[in-house]
Structures are given as structure tokens and as C-alpha cells.
Specification:
heterodimer, A: 9-stranded mixed beta sheet, B: alpha/beta, 10-stranded mixed beta sheet, 6-stranded parallel β-barrel, 34% strand, globular
């Protein structure tokens, strides 16, 4: 760990601290949780004021210098109009057979969302959950890592939009819940959203979140997700990031994995000028399986950073990580993955793989797969590769009359397909394959 | 395996500790005043009879060092080092022998105990059994080089092999041209400290087209209490030359921590090849983690010319703390870098070691094979970096790091940085961590091997990929060392 005095605050940091101060001071929230929420916000504000935006000298942000990427603190978005909602509803990704909930400019639009009751499933707007103190809200922010980073600190300081979802013990929710985030308008704004999902023991559910926005607008998204997977539960979580190519997308995902559970997460990243996902996973119960996967397709000057920390705190758990990155033009991909196996976590089985395909001469891939192991009876491994398309395979396809561009697209599709195929829900999986294909088509055209 | 059994027996006869090189040689020595200041630097430079430019170089390094901070990113923890509490220069009083016969017999006896033959005469008389594999040795005792063997024979081939102090006096042009050209004075905290106070080390120059007729070797020994050893090695292989160089280290058993901060610079010009092998067996501290050497080493090779090759092989079994990253700068087109490492930690040892392969030239390739073995309460980290720069087309890297854990109180960590900035680069990295399987153990035990023999056998198999890259003389020694280091780690 480097101990460096923080450089003086940038203008953006000053503005963010000022915004956070206003937020902390201005909004006394009523309800049973008012005190706790106030404390949370204050602590987050102080953490941010102390450390500012993470920068290159912070090891976890070595390849993504947020201080340089976030130059101006965008203001809060303007109130959402009906026209905005209609436009957003039309633009949002349409997944088949899902319950859709719509966020426009970081604000929940109840009128355009399906919040209806379903046996075993309760969906509450964050503000309502905070006011009533009901549901899983008491778990809010409990998964935050001890080392608070600036991104999550900001999300917590500005916390008030989002959802609290509870899946009751034993409930099987067949229809995936789709939370669509769309940013409209022509002014750059900053949105902060939070999703808390509490899956009860033995329950089964699928969630998908999507992120999109107006092309050409340099808005900033800061989204945090907390997932609690109860004992024996089965959770699938899919994330599709197709933000505007001018946007900055920052995400924090925090997952607690109970006993004998099954968790699958998948992240498809094709959007944003710069994006970063910090994924923190922790096994708190034994004999569980976690599959964390993702595919990233970048072009132009895009930058995408996937950083994960998986904590095998208990024994007999299995984890599989697979991340595929396709880099066209002068785009840059970052993968940092760390598996920690604690002393008590005997019989851990962990496999992590990051593979990158460099298509553009100027493309760059930075891989940092780490293992930190304190138990001896374990099987852990990681792999990282970077390279261009296999000439032999291309030749094989071309020899069979397939044009070069198409051959290339086929190979890339197969490459990312290896990660997508683990998504269990058929409709979602097909939709993801379509979206990856769409990216390839756009690139070829 | 008779070798292993023999070592096992020898080790068992030493009761408390397994370190067999822990004895102290009782000779009078001459030391610089304790602590570090410009005066210390001047003292060392004067002792060495160095020219003015060298003193200036050192003073410049010292002044820069004062402004630097000790690095804290490595995964090692130790109490803050008081740099004023060390002696920066210590030489046996009777130093400066004209020939082997003038060396203090105590020192000769020390090296004999360590199994390092300094007497060419004996070898030539055929006393040393393998006269076919002669090795020229430069022996460094605390701060000075006490003897360099086979100098005359090497000179016939045009190879310069001497202590760095002698090289500064005798071959100032070569030294000025290359010293600090691979590891700049301000490279890092320890390298800068070394630049200011280095006392001795080896210098090798292999001229154009010469294949060095024998293995060259340096043997480092820290003897004095509270001394720091700061050796500096500079090795240059001119166009088309080849040299294989071996390095070994030991120190007495002492309760306080001793400091060792070396800098090794290798320069390979066009078509040259350098093979650098190290068996590092500094005193690791006792079973409670008391004492031991702090080993902060900067080793770097520069493949400056086209099609040059540098290969590092290391067996790290000693030291309380190891902080060491032998690296290759692959500057010349078609150059190759290799790193083969076995790092074994036991007791309370902490190892943070690895390599850097920096691909700058076209068609460069590198290969990293690292085997870490952690036992006892030790921490063993592989930290490495592979980068291909924009213009390094067709850079190729293969990395394999395997860790083996023996016992549940130790830790094994892997921290690789892999940066491809070029679409034609092909990088592959794989790492695994596991333990000795019960099946393997059962199989060996069932055939009458003891637990420790079985572990030694399996571990030797685990590290085989690296051992085979060591020169013969070292491979046998290394194999023994591995079993000694793991002594007491089972059951």
C-alpha cells in the first residue's frame, strides 16, 4: 500500500465536496431510519472529503485515473418531463418476458414501471423503504468494503434514489426483473442510484439492469448494487452497460454469498467513454458456487475497467471468473481480479480467467490477476491472455468463401459467446448475444 | 535420493536450526565509523583509492538518496530500518593480497567450509574431482573482494574478471560507460543507497565474439556484526559474446537483522548471451523469526543489441526478507529474456520476488517460470510485470507461476501486471496454487520414505523445470538446499 499525501483537490473534487455538504445539511429524512441515514451520508461525505477521487497512485485505480477522467462535477439532473419518460421508455433495451422498472435521469418513474405485487416479491422505492424502515433496508450499505473508495462514498453521500427488493424465502420468481436506466436531455448531469436485493433462503430470482443515455452528452452515472444471496438461494444478475460514448459510468457491485447458494453475475459492457466496475464478492457460507463473468467490447478511444475482489472467507466454496475483452481501434481494457483465500477457507476451488482480443494496433489491455492465499488445501488458478485474432482460423474461414470482415465477426462472436453462454435465462442470453452481434455489425458497417 | 538423505542427516545433527552456514569467522577487521553520512561515502571511496569522478558519482547518489522514501508497496513487513545503525564498510584487516597465498588463512578456511575452492593450485593438481568443470571465483568477504581466481587464464581469452574496485582503477573507461546505464542512480531507494556506498562486487567484460572459457562465479559472505553489504556487479557481454555467471551468498547466524542491498547490471550487446544464476542462502533468521538478512536487491539486464539474450535463474532459500525483481529490458530487436525462479520460504521468512519483462524492440520474446513454495509461517509473493510497448510488434511472453503451500499458517500470493499496448503482442499468463496432494504423499510413504523425504522428493519434482536451467555445479547444491529449507515444515 502506498502512503502518499493526497495532492490538492481538483476543481471537480471541490465542487463534489460542496454538493455533498449541501446534501448532508439540507435533507432531514423523516422516518425510523433518519438518524442512521444521516450518519451514513455524513461518514461518506467525510471519507470523500479526506481522499477525494481515486487516482493513479492508488493501487486499485492504477490504470483508471478518475481524477483525470472526472474533470467537472456535473449538476443534478433537471426534473423529468412526460416527453422524457416516453422517449426513455422507447429507447430502453427491450428484454422478452420481463417485469420492467424505469429510471429516467436517475429517478424512478413509478408511472412507467411495473411495481405491482407478486407473491414472494416486494419492490419498494428506496425513499419509501427509508421512510417506512420496512423491508431489507436495514442491510443498506452493510457490504461496503472497509476501504471506502471515492466512488462508493459519493454514491452513499448522495443516496436517495433506488430500489429495495426482497425475495421471500422459498419463492421462485420466474419472470426476470429488469431495471432500465435511461438518461435523456442535452445537459450533462450526474445521477446516483442504488439497488439493494435481498434474496431469502432457498429463493430463486433473476435481475437485469441496463444503462443507456443520449449520445453526445457527457453525463455521469454512479450506480451501486448490493446483493444478499441467502442460504440455498439461486440468484442471476445481469448488467448491460450501453451508455452514451461520451458518458462516464461508475459502478460498485457488492455481493454476499450465503451457504449452499448459487450466484451468477454477467456484465456486458459496450458503452461509455470511460467506465469502471468495482465488484466485491464475499462468501459467508460454505459449499457455495459463484460464477462472475463478463464481456467487454470497445472501440474508438473507449476505456473500460473491470476490477473484482473475491473473498473466500469460508471453506468449500467454488468460484469461476471469466472475462472477455475485445478491443478495437485505440480502446483500452483493464482487468484487475483478486482472489483472497483466507486461512479457514480450506478446500477452496477458484479459477479466474481474463482473455483479451486486440483488434486495433493502438489498443491496450492491462491485466492484473492476483491470488492471495493463506490456506493450504486449495486449488486456485488464474490465467490471462492477450493477443490478436488467430490467423489460421481466419484463413480457414476465408478459404471457405466467408469475407474477411464477416470471418472476423464470427470469431469475435464465438470469443465473447464463451462468457455469455453461462447466462441461464434463455431470453436474456439470446438478447445478450443479439446485443454483442449488434456491436459487431455496427463496427463492420 | 542419497543427496537428500545425506542432507537430512546433516541437518538433524544441528539441533536448533537448519542453517549450516551460520558460523562466524573470527578475524580482525577494519570498519568505517558506524552510520551514514557524506563522510562515510568519502571514507569508502578513499579506501578504494577511487578517482574523483567516482566519488562525485557516489556523493550525487547519496544526496539524492536523502530525498527519497523507502518503498512500502511490497508485501513484506519489518520494523523501520535505522540506516544509521549499520557499518557501511568492513574489510578484513589483512586485505589486499597479491596472491592466493597471502590471503588470511582464516578466510580461506571460511570459504573452504562453505565449499568454495579458492585455490586454483589445488584444482590444477587435480584435488578437485571435476577438473572438467572449472569455475573462476571472485570471493567477496563483507565489503571487499578477497580473491579472484583464474584471472590469468581468463585474460588470455581477453575476458576481464575482477572486483569492481579494481575495474574502477584499471578499466575506468568501461566502468564509466556502463555503470548506472541499466540501473540509473536514482532508480529506487535501495539502488540509490547502493550507488552511494557500494563497496565491492564483480566486474566482467567479455569482448566481441568471445565465449567465456569457464563459468564465472562470485561468492558473497557477510561476516561482521551490524554490517550492511552493498555489492555492485557489472557484467558486459560485447557483440556475440557468451558468459555464464554464478552467484552464491551466505552469512553467519546473528540475532540482529543485517542489511544487504545489491545492484546487478547486465549489458548484452548484439548477439550476446548472458546466463546469470543465483543461489541465495543468506541467513533466514531463527525459528522464532529473530535475526536474518534483509535482502533488497535490484537486478536488471539490458538486451541492448539485436538478438541478444539474458537469462536469470534464481534459487531463493535464505534471507528474512527478500525484495528482488531480476528484470530484462528487451530493447534490441529479436532479443530474448528469461526468468526461472524457485523461491522457498519457511519459518518467518517473507519473500516478495518476481521479474519485469519490458518489451521495447520488435520480435522480442520472454519466458517466466516461477515456483514459490511457502512453509511454516512464511509469506511468499510473486510480483511480476510484463509490458509490450507501442512499437514492440510481435512481442511474445509466456508466464507460469505455481505456488505450493505446506501447512496452513503460511501464505502464497501472486501479483502479476500484464500490459499489452500492441495488438500484435501475444501474452499468456497462468498461475496455480495448490498443496502436496495426499495421494502423492501416501504413495511415497507407502514405499518407505519418511514424511520429510517424501516432501523433498515431491518438491524437487515441482521445481524441476527451473532446476534444469541451473549450471550443473549449482543444480546439485540447490537440490540439497531445497530439502534443507523445508526441514521441519511437515508434521
Amino acid at each position: 500500500m502506498n502512503i502518499h499525501a493526497n495532492p490538492p483537490r481538483t476543481a471537480a473534487e471541490e465542487a463534489l465536496v460542496a454538493h455533498a455538504d449541501q446534501r448532508v445539511a439540507a435533507e432531514p429524512v423523516a422516518g425510523p431510519l433518519a438518524g442512521r441515514l444521516g450518519e451514513l451520508r455524513r461518514a461518506a461525505r467525510d471519507a470523500f472529503a479526506a481522499n477525494g477521487l481515486p487516482h493513479r497512485r492508488v493501487e486499485e485505480w492504477k490504470y483508471t485515473d478518475l481524477r483525470a477522467l472526472l474533470r467537472t462535477a456535473a449538476p443534478a439532473p433537471a426534473p423529468v418531463s412526460t416527453a422524457d419518460v416516453a422517449a426513455a421508455g422507447a429507447e430502453a433495451v427491450a428484454f422478452p418476458d420481463v417485469r420492467r422498472i424505469l429510471f429516467v435521469n436517475g429517478q424512478l418513474v413509478a408511472s412507467a414501471s411495473d411495481l405491482s405485487a407478486e407473491a414472494g416479491l416486494s419492490i419498494l422505492p428506496l425513499s419509501e423503504a427509508l421512510a417506512s424502515g420496512q423491508g431489507a433496508i436495514e442491510k443498506l450499505n452493510t457490504l461496503a468494503p472497509q476501504k471506502y473508495d471515492g466512488v462508493l462514498a459519493l454514491n452513499t453521500a448522495f443516496l436517495d434514489e433506488g430500489l429495495v427488493i426482497r425475495v421471500d424465502a422459498g419463492a421462485h420468481i420466474a419472470r426476470p426483473v429488469h431495471i432500465a436506466h435511461v438518461v435523456t436531455g442535452t445537459e450533462a448531469s450526474a445521477t446516483y442510484t442504488r439497488l439493494l436485493v435481498d434474496v431469502g433462503a432457498g429463493a430463486k430470482a433473476t435481475f437485469v439492469e441496463s444503462f443507456q443515455g443520449t449520445e453526445g452528452v457527457a453525463y455521469q452515472t454512479n450506480d451501486a448494487v448490493e446483493l444478499f444471496v441467502g442460504d440455498g438461494a439461486h440468484l442471476d444478475y445481469v448488467r448491460v452497460q450501453e451508455e452514451s460514448l461520451s458518458a462516464l459510468h461508475l459502478a460498485t457491485m457488492m455481493v454476499e454469498i450465503g451457504h449452499e447458494t448459487k450466484l451468477h453475475t454477467f456484465t456486458l459492457t459496450t458503452g461509455a467513454k470511460a467506465s469502471r466496475v468495482s465488484l466485491y464478492g464475499r462468501f459467508s457460507g460454505t459449499h457455495s458456487h459463484a460464477g462472475l463473468r463478463g464481456a467487454t467490447l470497445l472501440k474508438g478511444g473507449q476505456h473500460a475497467d473491470m476490477t473484482l475482489l473475491l473473498d473466500h472467507a469460508v471453506s468449500n466454496c467454488e468460484s469461476r471468473e471469466l472475462f472477455k475483452t475485445v478491443l478495437a481501434d485505440e480502446s483500452r481494457g483493464v482487468f484487475q481480479g483478486k482472489i483472497v483465500v483466507r486461512q479457514d477457507a480450506q478446500k477452496t476451488d477458484g479459477r479466474m480467467m481474463s482473455q483479451a482480443l486486440l483488434l486495433g494496433d493502438e489498443a491496450e489491455m492491462d491485466n492484473k490477476p492476483e491470488l492471495e492465499i493463506f490456506a493450504d488445501d486449495v486449488q486456485c488458478g488464474h490465467g490471462a491472455t492477450a493477443g490478436s485474432l488467430d490467423e489460421d482460423l481466419l484463413f480457414y474461414l476465408k478459404a471457405r468463401g466467408i469475407p474477411a470482415k464477416e470471418a472476423e465477426a464470427l470469431l469475435i462472436q464465438a470469443f465473447v459467446g464463451e462468457a455469455i453462454e453461462f447466462v441461464e435465462n434463455d431470453g436474456l442470453r439470446d438478447a445478450l448475444i443479439d446485443r454483442a452481434e449488434g456491436w459487431l455489425k455496427k463496427r463492420v458497417a | 535420493m542419497p543427496a537428500v538423505q545425506e542432507t537430512v542427516d546433516r541437518v538433524k545433527s544441528i539441533d536448533v536450526d537448519q542453517y549450516k552456514y551460520g558460523f562466524v569467522t573470527d578475524i580482525e577487521s577494519e570498519k568505517a565509523p558506524k552510520g551514514l553520512s557524506e563522510d562515510t561515502v568519502r571514507y569508502i571511496s578513499a579506501k578504494k583509492g577511487e578517482p574523483e569522478w567516482m566519488l562525485e558519482w557516489r556523493l550525487d547518489a547519496y544526496r539524492r538518496w536523502l530525498t527519497m522514501e523507502e518503498p512500502t508497496w511490497a508485501r513484506v513487513s519489518y520494523p523501520k530500518i535505522d540506516f544509521q545503525d549499520y557499518y557501511y564498510y568492513s574489510a578484513p584487516k589483512s586485505s589486499g593480497p597479491k596472491s592466493i597465498d597471502e590471503i588470511d588463512p582464516e578466510i580461506l578456511a571460511t570459504y573452504e567450509k562453505l565449499g568454495i575452492p579458492l585455490r586454483e593450485r589445488d584444482i590444477l593438481l587435480g584435488i578437485e574431482p571435476q577438473s572438467g568443470s572449472r569455475v573462476a571465483v571472485d570471493a567477496v568477504f563483507d565489503s571487499v573482494s578477497v580473491a579472484t581466481t583464474f584471472k590469468a587464464e581468463l585474460a588470455k581469452a581477453g575476458v576481464i574478471f575482477c572486483s569492481i574496485s579494481e575495474a574502477i582503477r584499471e578499466h575506468p573507461d568501461l566502468v564509466r560507460q556502463y555503470l548506472g546505464s541499466v540501473v540509473p542512480v536514482t532508480d529506487n531507494f535501495y539502488a540509490t543507497l547502493n550507488s552511494a556506498v557500494f563497496s565491492d562486487g564483480s566486474f566482467v567484460y567479455v569482448p566481441k565474439g568471445v565465449r567465456c572459457p569457464m563459468e564465472l562465479s562470485t561468492y558473497f559472505r557477510i561476516n561482521e556484526r551490524n554490517t550492511g553489504q552493498f555489492e555492485r556487479t557489472l557484467l558486459i557481454a560485447d557483440e556475440g559474446a557468451y558468459v555464464s555467471y554464478l552467484e552464491g551468498c551466505t552469512a553467519p547466524q546473528r540475532d540482529e537483522n543485517q542489511l544487504h542491498a545489491a545492484v546487478v547490471e547486465l549489458v548484452a550487446l548484439k548477439d550476446a548471451e548472458i546466463k546469470y544464476s543465483t543461489v541465495q542462502n543468506w541467513y533466514p533468521g531463527d525459528k522464532n523469526g529473530k535475526g536474518g538478512i534483509y535482502n533488497f536487491v535490484t537486478k536488471r539486464g539490458d538486451c541492448r543489441g539485436a538478438n541478444s539474450k539474458i537469462s536469470w535463474t534464481q534459487v531463493e532459500t535464505g534471507s528474512a526478507i527478500t525484495w528482488k525483481y531480476p528484470s530484462c529490458i528487451l530493447r534490441g530487436d529479436g532479443s530474448q529474456g528469461e526468468f526461472y525462479s524457485i523461491a522457498i520460504s519457511n519459518g518467518f521468512q517473507q519473500v516478495d520476488s518476481g521479474t519485469k519483462m519490458i518489451h521495447l524492440g520488435k520480435n522480442t520474446s520472454s519466458r517466466i517460470i516461477s515456483k514459490g513454495i511457502a512453509a511454516g509461517r512464511s509469506e511468499n509473493t510473486y510480483r511480476g510485470q510484463v509490458t509490450a510497448h507501442r512499437r514492440a510488434t510481435n512481442a511474445r511472453n509466456f508466464t507460469n507461476c505455481d505456488s505450493l503451500l505446506i501447512g496452513d499458517k503460511c501464505g502464497a500470493h501472486t501479483v502479476p501486471y500484464i500490459e499489452a499496448k500492441n495488438a500484435s503482442a501475444v501474452f499468456e499468463h497462468e498461475a496455480t496454487t495448490s498443496k502436496i496432494s495426499e495421494d502423492q504423499m501416501f504413495y511415497c510413504l507407502q514405499r518407505g520414505l519418511s514424511q520429510e523425504e517424501a516432501v523433498a522428493l515431491i518438491v524437487n519434482g515441482f521445481v524441476k523445470d527451473v532446476l534444469q536451467h541451473l549450471p550443473m555445479e549449482f543444480a546439485v547444491e540447490a537440490q540439497k538446499l531445497i530439502s534443507v529449507s523445508l526441514e521441519g515444515s511437515v508434521g
